[in-house]
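Thread: "does anyone have the structure for this chain?"

Original post by V.I.:
We have the sequence but no experimental structure in hand. Need at least a predicted one for the grant figures.
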Amino acid sequence: MGTSLPAPQSALTEVPDTYISYTIDVSYLLGGRWWGTEERSACGVGTAVVPPLDLKNKALLKWASYLSPAYLRVGGTEADRVYYALKKKEPVPSKPVVDYQLVLKKKQWKQLIRFTKKVGARLVFTLNCGWSDRLPDGSWDSSNARRLIAYTARKRLPVVAWELGNEVNGYPFLEGIKYAIPAKRYAEDFYLFSHLVEELHPEAQSVGPASAFWPIIGEPTSWKGSGMPND
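Reply from O.Q.:
Generated one for you, tokens below.
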């Protein structure tokens, strides 16, 4: 005979209207590598290249608006490989450690902001904290993020929070063990980041760290469990 629990006489707590929210992966947004129909993956993402997401799609706008009120987080593995090109025909710079893989253009940024407004969402954007925005000594180079935050604040675009990096503790699994970011280093980066947001865009919150969590060793990719005990 199963055990039944008595119904509480009053609510234990209340959650905000935005408790159930959603994410758009930056790779899917900008037209990067995605899983699609392929089972293969490389560096934490699929090997198939998809076209940029059509944020003007009427069906998408309709169904996304039904999720309101909600937070829309734009992040994902490739968020740590993006260059923010805010000028016309701006060349993507080469980097001393790892080059950029994706580019967010001003036009795309404005389209994302318009989409967010139309569907009644609150935008949380994940900033590049990966090795394409790091110096040879491992410290975070904030110049890429600074330009996007400053532009957004100057234009009074509605971003409610900036997040520093996507699942930073997963870097050694995605990029290789030498690309691991020690906790002390990330804490120093976050100190710089939070002061940057406070200086340039005080209306927004500083968010982080997002962490990768695998409840079962070997999931989601089996090679992670090789040579590791299961108990």
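V.I.: this helps a lot. Residues 43 and 124 are 24 Å apart (CA to CA).
O.Q.: and The first strand starts at residue 22 and ends at 25.
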